[in-house]
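Internal tracking record. Fields below are filled automatically when a chain is submitted to the structure queue. Please do not edit lines marked as system-generated. If the sequence contains nonstandard residues, flag them in the REMARKS field before resubmitting.
Queue: standard
Priority: normal
Entity type: single polypeptide chain
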Amino acid sequence: YYSDWSSDVCSSELPVYELNRSHAFALNSSKARTELAAKALSQHVEFVRRHVDAALLEMRELWTGNPAVFDEQVRRHSTFIRNFAFQVSVADVNGRLLYSSLSRNVGSVNVADRSYFKALANAGRTDPLFISEPIVGRISGVTTLQLSRPLAGTRPFAGTISVSVQPGMLTSEEQRRYGYENMLAEVWRTDGTLLSRMPELPQQPPLLDMNSTWANPGATPHASPVEKTLFLCSRSDDAAGRFILLVCLSEAYVLREHDALRNRLLLVCLLISLALLTGVFLFLKFRNDRNRAVAQLQMNRRIIDSVQQVARLGDYIWEPERQALMAS
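SYSTEM-GENERATED OUTPUT FOLLOWS
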């Protein structure tokens, strides 16, 4: 009976309602925050893309085939270099590097096997902007993204001009602006290639299935394809349709206050149960002591009655405190 009463107290409608309300509030509020952050991330990535592409087009017009003269022109874009670009490079029609802002001695470096060079070489007389997967530079040894265009524009292919951007450039603004604990920001190309990730880009990122729940997040947490941790995410697409952008909060962070409330309720229920068990124990002990005392008195009464009948005693008094029988 008492355990049932304790169970009723801890599973009554009020605690259950409060836990459900807390859980729903945690998910809804975090979802709203990630949606807002995803839209902001989309705008930031579009800003970086437009800014780099504008500089890329401008510097392409300055290329005359003379690396020394071009280097002077590039140095005039020092603010752009400092804020956005890690490297500016030019390759000829065969992929041989003609210029790098990192080194005047490019030697025999060739980029003909790079994905961006192959894509632009096969683009015909179009002038697309190609954004590569993260690749390790052959001069710098640093992992960067290559934003590249054909060197000759819509004329016959004559090589490429590229601006190298560090992957963190796409997501660093998100960290500065929001800086949520356990926050995850990712920029994926629409072919499933991971371009940038905060807090860090894995060395061998998986290819994302565009039909997966991670690429199309809902209102509940899902496991990340990188570290298998549960995250609540929101998605935003850039205006040009080149990227999908995900901003996520870990399930542990989202439900931290809900879990704290649940633990407090469990503690209260535990204390109530302990109090009830203690009360039941004391009640049973009191009842057993009383029953033993009554049984002892009844036995003493029978003994006295028997003695009185046998010995024909006169008056008697039983003193239980002294365990003594006073008889005439």
